[in-house]
Every structure is written in C-alpha cells, then in structure tokens.
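Methods: example folding runs. The two proteins below were folded one after another, and each record is reproduced exactly as written to the output file, sequence line first and structure-token line second.
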Amino acid sequence: MLTGVAAGILATLITGVSAVFWRNRRDLRLLWGAVPYRRTTRVSVSALLRIRDDDFCVLFHTPYTSGSYGPPGGVCKYRSTAEPDLERIGFRPQRVAREGDPMRADLRGFVPRQKLPAFARWVRKGADRESGPECLRRELVEELAEIGHPELVYGIEKLDFMLIRTVVDGPHRVPGRDYRQIRFHHVYNLVTNDSRAVELRERLLELGRDGSEEYVICASGDDIIQGRQGDHLIGSHTAFLIGARKVWGELPSIR
C-alpha cells in the first residue's frame, strides 16, 4: 500500500514538474541563467532602427554615454492597463518617474528571477505596451531634436517599419552589481514605401557621411564589430543591426 502511495506521489511530482518545464520551455535559459543571483534581474524592452546603405548603418550620438553612438530607437513604454499584469509578475521600474518625466512608464526595471519566463511571455504577447513601430516613431521625434535636426520630424507619424529580428540579450552579469541583466531587442528596417520615408532615409545617410556632422555617423559592419569608428565609440547593442550576437560589453553611462 505504501509503495502504491509513494508511486502516486512521485507520478504527481513528475507530472507537475513536466508541466512547468513545458509551459516555460522557450524561456528556461532565462531562469537558469539568473539562478546564481537570488534577488532580481534587470530587464528592458526596446526597439532599434536599422537604416542601412550597402554595408553602412546610420548611428546617432548617445547622450547618456558621451562620445558613443548607437542605432535610433529606445525603450518601449507600457500602458496603464498593463499595471495589473506587471504587478502580478513583480516588475519594479528602475526609476520612479513623475508625470511628464520622459522616462515615465519605461519598460526598464527589475523582475524576480523566478518570474522571468512569465515576463518573457508577457513581452511576446505585445499587449498593453508600445509596439516597436510606435516606440520608434516616438523616439525618432525626440532623437532628431537631440541631434539638432528637428526639421526631419515632419511625417514621422506615418512611417512604417518591418521587423527583421528579435534578440534576447542575456542573462549577463553586470559589473559591480549583484544582479544580472536581460534585454529584449526588436530590430526594424524603415519601410521606404513613400516619398517621406525615402527622403528621411537619404537625408540621414547624407548626414552620416558628412565628416563635419557631430551627432550622426555611418558605421560599417567592421566598425560595429570592432566597437569604434575612429574617435567614435559604438555601443555594443549596435551589433544587433547586423546579427544576433554582440562582441563587446556595455559602455558605462553618465550618471
């Protein structure tokens, strides 16, 4: 009798564990990669824009890492309707931002290690957050002003983008911190299906090739792999414009 009870308990455990593994099968590496860090994992969700001509990609100056360049784009924002799901997952924003703060509602923060698969599933659903194209349109308006060319924002709201790859970067150890980091990058091409998109693409390529332009460069694939173009540093995430792997670690940002 005891043998039968033990066998039943064992079968139940195996069934339960198998169900957990099956439900999280796409995200197990996220869970195991963060095991050594018992508290939380830093996460972010972003959209990156690739504007390429032959082997060269347009990069913008990055204000938070002075002297470095990276692809247009940035962190997606979540909507207020996402708050119940994010609270259930245990998402905690990296920065508590007030109304009007440009970083308010950014999908950048911390998630308990055991909730990483649930967060990854929520990201893949794409509900209650900015889509990649919505994020890129918003970021382009901000970034074109930052690089000194606000005249190029005309018609941004009508631009279309095509997803070319999704990259889950991490988990990686963060130097000097007791947590690991995972980033969800969605890389898009600009769809040049109208005169406005063609004009924007050509103008940005022109600026990138202009040696006197301070805030826009055109970097070759080799520049991106090497992490620099002359005196210009190139952010490691730029590598996702040309492939699914990066070579260099993160550049430290300005505090």
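Second run, written to the same file directly after the first:
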Amino acid sequence: MSRLVPVQTVTKEKTLAQAVDLAREALVDITPADSIGDHQGVVLEAERVLTHAFTCLLPGYSGWFWAVTQSRAPRSRKVTVNELSLKPGPEALVAPEWVPWADRLEPDDVSGVEPLPYRAEDPRLVEGFEDTSDDADQLREFELGLGRARVLSQQGRKEAFNRWYNSDRGPDNPSTRAAKANCSTCAFMMLMAGSARSMFGVCANEWSPDDGKVVSLDHGCGAHSETDAPKQQKLWDQSDPVLNETDIEIVESAT
C-alpha cells in the first residue's frame, strides 16, 4: 500500500477525498460491513484519481487494507468508483514472491527417474563446436551435430570443480583428517580427463564410502590401498610355560 495521507491534508482533490461514505458503501458489495474498519487515509494516484483505505478486520488479514479507487471527470463533482481491492500494508503478512518451478528446484529435490526442465539458456553449457578453450572437451567427429548438442562451458567446469572440492569428498572433512595418506597415492584412484585430472579422480574401491564417486586428490579415507589396520597391542609378554605338557616322551617297554 502506498503512503497514506489524512483527508484533511488533501487540497487538490477535495471532492474525491471527502467521498468516504460512498467508498465504504461500495465495499459492502464485496465484504460484510463488520469486516470494514476505520478509514485510514487516502492515496493520490493521479490527477482526479484517488484511493481510500480502510482497515481490514477479516481474521488472518492483520495489516491489510480495503482499497476503493475513485475518479471524476474534468470539471465534474460526480464521484465514480473504479476499483475495489484488498491491499497489504507495510506490516502485512504476504506470501513470498513467486518463483517458477524450474528455478526453485534444487538437486536434492529430484531422483534419477524424474525428468528435469530443459534450460535453453544455461550458462554452464555451450554448443559443442563453440568451446575453443584449452580445457575444451575433445569432440569426436560424430559429436559435431550428431552427438552431444552442448558441452560444459568454462563456467560450468568451474562450478563443478568448486562444488566437488567443497563437498565431503574434498580435503576438509573428518575422513581426510583421520587418513594416513591421500587419494593421490592410492591404487584405487582412477584419474579423470582434461583439467580435472590435476585435481580429481574417481574412487574404485568397493570397501570405500566414496566408491564410484568423484574425490579430490587430497581427499583421504581408511580404505587407502597402502594402509593397514593397526595391530592390536599385547597386554603382556607371554613367557615360556613352566610345565610343557605338549612334549611327548617315548619310553621303551620291556617285553
């Protein structure tokens, strides 16, 4: 709701400003009379156009106003009701701004069997023949119009690298801090191609919680190929027995 001014302060549109009763009567056509509160002021919309505001007393609409927009013709004192509406004030509880489904969807909201909306303008992707950077995907002949229509752009690669490196499969996590060695020295590390090769690989150890996932070279876990579980320490050193009953003494018998 725009800034309200008292009726007494209106000088240019006194005819419209003083038509408070007419505005209240018009509201009765769309809402019960007991839902219309006190007159709170007017809003000067334009020349010969003015809106009256009344407190809304409907349950759940605290801070809202009934709005009645009036106008008059030039050199006429006849007031016409143009529009009736319910408008939120500065303290009103309103719904959040609408965000289209395709824009509010998060990766965790979908499973692998649900189709995602097509994004014609995706800054993470470029046409397969447009990417000429040093890190461009190596395209085969069949991809030039017959295979992938788009490939990762430099922005798309940068976002993916940041996301992977800052995840639980990067270096900053309890698993890496407890590990004896990093993935860069693990035999189960399968390196990636392109610029990702210098930072990431795919874990191929079925006993690792990261099996089949992208991990950074400085990540680590307890399933490293060259580590071993600590040997259990003895509580004491076992001494030789005083009586060894496992020995067998052969005695010749007299026959």
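Comment on the second run: Strands lie at 36-46, 49-56, 64-71, 80-88, 125-127, 150-152, 189-191, 200-203, 214-216.
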